[in-house]
Specification:
This protein has helices at about 1-15, 20-25, 65-70, 110-125, 150-160, 210-230, 235-240, 265-275, 310-315, 320-325, 355-370, and strands spanning about 95-100, 100-105, 130-135, 140, 165-175, 185-190, 245-250, 255-260, 280-285, 290-295, 330-335, 340-350, 350-355. Helix content is about 30%, strand content about 20%.
């Protein structure tokens, strides 16, 4: 009981002296110490006696010189943006990945950079390209016997087929990797008897696993050597991804539409990039519905112009109410057609098409900014 009374008395004394400078003021026990580091000074290193052999002790937290020479608190300071993580000089730009029977090559380069080197590897080894679709990152070779290939490749392929006189065909597909700026290279192969004209379909991923593994190993060496000597060709990414044919027409109801002769994945990325290049604000996207939600009254969002929370409050940025008041919101919709093309249209909402002049203006911007 006496202890409780003592604590109560102490609490009363502290509360009654809460206005005193010795407790809360600049010299008080509970003073603000957040800027004490600005007054720190670096002292001379600690000196050891002459007869003591000791390892030098370096300061763990040295005070930077520009801080130690100034006690003024900066009025403005912008925290620098983190730099992108660089690839170690010892790490290879190209590597092989494996999952079950499937193997593929991962390159720390864009598909546009990998495409010409991969194609050259097969052509230099005697493969003849029968079909190529840069827009989808795919090329297919002709049916050939091992004897028609380059000598070193002929021996390698011949030893992996069921018969020396069999014919082989290869499909190479270069896809954007999971990480931005990377590529994944897949090789599929099929075999048929010599003289046969049967149309053998390619498997989804893996055909002759041993042959595909050998081709990927050779391509890995070729890509690594090309990168080391600085001879990896660079194609414009816009041209690589862009549809091969683009036409601005009308649908059955007379509404303007843009027809892209490419698959949906390439069309989706191409239209998104074109809107960005056209300085059109994308407020939201719905990949499953194939819709870009755009605001024609605002410019495209640029990462270097994005502001923090406090700067948004005090930096004179327009408020959400102001943006909503002047907004011109529409939906740019991508629809896969029956003929393998992708159709791009502009809508006010899911039940209402946009006015013709708005549709034509947006679709023209997209067309002009496609590769």
């Amino acid at each position: 009981m006496k202890r409780l009374a003592g604590l109560s008395t102490l609490a009363l004394i502290i509360s009654s002296t809460s206005g005193c400078g010795w407790l809360w003021g600049d010299e008080g026990y509970f003073r603000d110490r957040s800027t004490d580091y600005l007054e720190a000074r670096q002292t001379a290193p600690m000196q050891m006696p002459a007869n003591v052999d000791a390892k030098r002790i370096d300061p763990l937290l040295p005070v930077p010189a520009h801080v130690a020479t100034s006690t003024a608190t900066p009025q403005e300071f912008e925290v620098p943006r983190p730099q992108p993580v660089g690839v170690s000089g010892q790490a290879s730009e190209f590597s092989l990945q494996k999952s079950g029977d499937s193997r593929w090559l991962v390159a720390q380069r864009t598909p546009a950079e990998v495409w010409p080197v991969a194609r050259s590897y097969f052509e230099n080894n005697g493969f003849r390209v029968a079909e190529e679709r840069p827009q989808t990152g795919e090329f297919v070779t002709e049916w050939q016997t091992p004897a028609e290939l380059a000598p070193s490749m002929s021996r390698r392929v011949g030893s992996l087929l069921s018969d020396d006189d069999s014919q082989v065909r290869v499909r190479v597909r270069i896809e954007p990797g999971v990480v931005r700026g990377t590529s994944e290279v897949f090789v599929a192969s099929v075999e048929r008897e010599e003289g046969s004209s049967a149309d053998v379909a390619f498997p989804a991923r893996t055909g002759i696993a041993s042959l595909e593994a050998s081709l990927l190993d050779g391509m890995l060496d070729d890509l690594s050597s090309s990168a080391e000597h600085g001879s990896v060709s660079l194609l414009a990414a816009r041209n690589f991804d862009a549809p091969s044919r683009v036409s601005l027409t009308q649908d059955g109801a007379g509404n303007p539409v843009l027809n892209l002769s490419t698959d949906f994945d390439r069309a989706w990325s191409s239209v998104g990039r074109a809107l960005e290049l056209a300085d059109v604000r994308i407020d939201d996207i719905n990949r499953s519905l194939g819709v870009y939600y755009v605001n024609l009254a605002e410019g495209a969002k640029k990462p270097e112009e994005e502001k923090g929370f406090l700067s948004g409050l005090f930096g004179g940025e327009p408020s959400k109410e102001e943006i909503d008041a002047r907004a011109e919101r529409y939906q740019v919709r991508l629809t896969s057609g029956a003929n393998g093309e992708v159709q791009v249209s502009v809508e006010k909402d899911i039940n209402t098409v946009a006015p013709e002049e708005v549709s034509r203006r947006v679709l023209t911007l997209i067309q002009e900014n496609l590769g």
